[in-house]
Structures are given as C-alpha cells and as structure tokens.
Amino acid sequence: xxxxxxxxxxxxxxxxxxxxxxxxxxxxxxxxxxxxxxxxxxxxxxxxxxxxxxxxxxxxxxxxxxxxxxxxxxxxxxxxxxxxxxxxxxxxxxxxxxxxxxxxxxxxxxxxxxxxxxxxxxxxxxxxxxxxxxxxxxxxxxxxxxxxxxxxxxxxxxxxx
Length: 161
Hints:
3% of the residues lie in helices and 39% in strands. It contains 1 helix and 11 strands; from the N terminus they run βββββββββββα. The longest helix is centred in the last third of the chain and has 5 residues, at 150-154. The protein starts with a strand and ends in a 7-residue tail after the last helix.
C-alpha cells in the first residue's frame, strides 16, 4: 500500500506552507521551519510518497523524520537537491550526505517513494524510488552505517513521520 503526501520543498531552515488536500489525491502538509507535529504514519506497512518540483541546483531539500509510538526518533531520510548532485542522508545511520548510487530521472517533477522494511530478525532496509525507478536500496548494518547507534533507532517501530 502507498499513501501520497504533498511536500512543498523549502530551503534548509525555510518554511513550508501547503494548501488543503487537492483534487488529485495528494494530502497537503504544513510545516513551519524545521519542526512540526508528528503525523501518524505506519511506514513499515505503508510506503510514503512525496511529490516535488525542485530542480537540481535549487539547494532545496526534503527532510522526513521517523518517530516511534512514544515519539522518540526512529530514523529518517533527507533528499537534497544540491548544485550538481542529488544526495541523501539517513538519520542515525550516515554521518553525512551521500550521492545516490544511480542517475536520477532528469524531470523536474518527481514522485519519491520511501519504503522501510524491518524483518523479524531486525534486518532494516530502506528503499527509495524516484518516478518508479529504484534509486536506493540499502540494508542498514554496521558496514553501511557509520553511526554505531543506528540499530537503537532504526529498530524502533515507526508510527509517525
């Protein structure tokens, strides 16, 4: 299952102001600055889709934080539209931004799908699609994450974004 949410991109530390739900099935989200009220969202059973219309070089960013049922951090993803590269950041896993391992679609309008899977043996996988093309598929581990505490966060059940 997949749920669509409209995020209007902003410069880091900027504002997002979105309208009410549109007729095309997207749910608008309003955010002020870098904080907002957590939105109930069962990411482990429902992929999150985010629609953007920013160009490479706009220095815009999508920041999605994950929270558990007690609203404690349980991971997160940033997608960055830098000068010459698209990059991502996995909170509580990577200590800095990382280039996507593949070339992303060149269209300005993009639909990003973020999927989080956690197996009974606590294997955590993050998959990101852009315009239905897989652009990231990473199994979180002590090798792929340079933050040694990654398992403390990413193994929490995500209940909010």
